[in-house]
UniProtKB/TrEMBL annotation:
InterPro entries: Transposase-related (IPR052344), Transposase_IS66_central (IPR004291). The lineage of its organism: Bacteria, Pseudomonadati, Pseudomonadota, Betaproteobacteria, Burkholderiales. This is Transposase IS66 central domain-containing protein. Residues 28-82 form the Transposase IS66 central domain. Coiled coil: none annotated. Signal peptide: none annotated.
């Protein structure tokens, strides 16, 4: 893809002519080129590593439930409420993806908070 005289998919030595970022004539296009070149390694990781997906569909799908529930029930009224909801949904989604029971994890977390057990992990295999 050509953006302001830069080929966004190539490395800067092959795909961009020297000085193309400054020759684009448009400040926004030049900044887009600079941002693409700065993120080049990250943008093309999926080509070098077969297990990496080229899209973020899994992340988008994970957020869909949260967004729909927030849309239906309305926003929280404080930063503390937002953090509580975000952490709750994060724990719920982590447990769901790992095939773990959220209720069991929450019970372990509560026991740990009361000082009656180890802190449970949400990391896979934890």
């Amino acid at each position: 893809m050509w953006v302001g005289g830069c080929f966004a998919g190539a490395n800067s030595a092959r795909g961009c002519r020297p000085g193309c970022i400054t020759r684009s004539g448009c400040r926004r296009t030049a900044q887009t080129c600079a941002n693409l070149l700065a993120q080049e390694v990250s943008l093309w990781t999926f080509l070098r590593h077969p297990g990496v997906e080229p899209t973020n569909n899994a992340a988008e799908q994970a957020l869909r439930t949260v967004v729909l529930k927030r849309k239906i029930s309305g926003p929280t009224r404080s930063m503390r409420g937002q953090q509580f909801v975000a952490r709750g949904f994060s724990a719920m989604e982590s447990c769901r993806r790992q095939g773990r029971d959220l209720r069991d994890w929450m019970e372990q977390a509560l026991r740990a908070w009361l000082g009656a057990g180890p802190v449970p992990s949400l990391l896979p295999g934890g």
